[in-house]
Amino acid sequence: MNTLNHFETPQLELLHRGKVRDSFRAPSGERLIVVTDRLSAFDSVLETPVAHKGAVLNGLAAFWFDKTRHIIPNHVISLPDPNVTLAQEAEPIRVEMVVRHYLTGSMWRGYQQGQRSFSGVAVPDGLTKHQQFPEPIVTPTTKEESDREITPENLVAEGWVTAELYEQMRVKALELFNFASQWMAERGIILVDTKYEFGLRNGELLLIDEIHTPDSSRFWSADDYARNPEAAEQMDKEYVRQWLIAHKQDGQYPRALTPEVSAEATRRYLDIYERITGAPLPVASSTNDDMQARMVRNLVRAGIIQDA
Length: 308
Ligand SMILES: Nc1ncnc2c1ncn2[C@@H]1O[C@H](COP(=O)(O)OP(=O)(O)O)[C@@H](O)[C@H]1O
Ligand SMILES: [Mg+2]
Known about the structure:
It contains eight helices and 16 strands. It has helices spanning about 55-65, 105-110, 150-155, 165-185, 220-225, 240-245, 260-275, 290-300; strands spanning about 15, 20-25, 30-35, 40, 45, 75-80, 85, 90, 95-100, 115-120, 120, 130-140, 140, 190-200, 205-210, 215-220.
């Protein structure tokens, strides 16, 4: 099956190659975000791309940007290709607005070691793994070499954001989170936690980057959680992680997946897409497409690059 491991065209300036996405400068000055099929686990990118993962992530982000327009404007201009978003360039605010509804991940690890305050949010003793908080909480981090938990007061004191802007971001982040939580809950999925990024455009607050994707969020199956909360696992990636753990050799995780494991990962991403949006991923049926060629064709059609 054809996959997209990385995208290249001499016509576009590469701005940033991330773990999963490649960002380019469009001639119009806008930002072109290419979501590849790369999968990152345990902090490294696997050699085996996962078919359709990029289109699932790009499609889910687009779905949510569209659904949440009434809450906040966002950077999306168009989707010239299933794996590509053309976005307005914003002046990014170097803060990750992390919203959490359950005690898990790095927060659970800190909690086990006795930490009781997270980015200024105090939590009581006696909580158990994966316990739900009475309300979602916001635990911001800075966006720098290695992200740092920080209180809202210090974000302002250190000059990352003004107090007024932080308050707007906090209110919007919670509104977005509650809206998506409810939508997903009706479809059997728990939105465990996620992070939002904001930017400024002509002085206006804009939602940027990606939202409510499996790469920026944790999803649990509500059934799994009801059966045994502490055993709930990420619906998308946990399966791959467990396989990597089971096949560790000489202290090293495998760098590639078998075709079977990669196919199962694809199945899980497609399932999440369909459960959330209510329709199968449109591009999933075209398995023999040469993706690089298709993208070039679509970018030419959209007037973003010239026919070579
Ligand atoms: N509309 C936008 N305007 C400006 N910057 C953006 C916009 N959307 C996303 N970004 C930035 O682009 C970068 C994308 O990086 P990403 O693909 O997530 O790679 P990484 O693996 O390094 O996190 C982030 O720093 C994000 O803040
Ligand atoms: Mg990122």
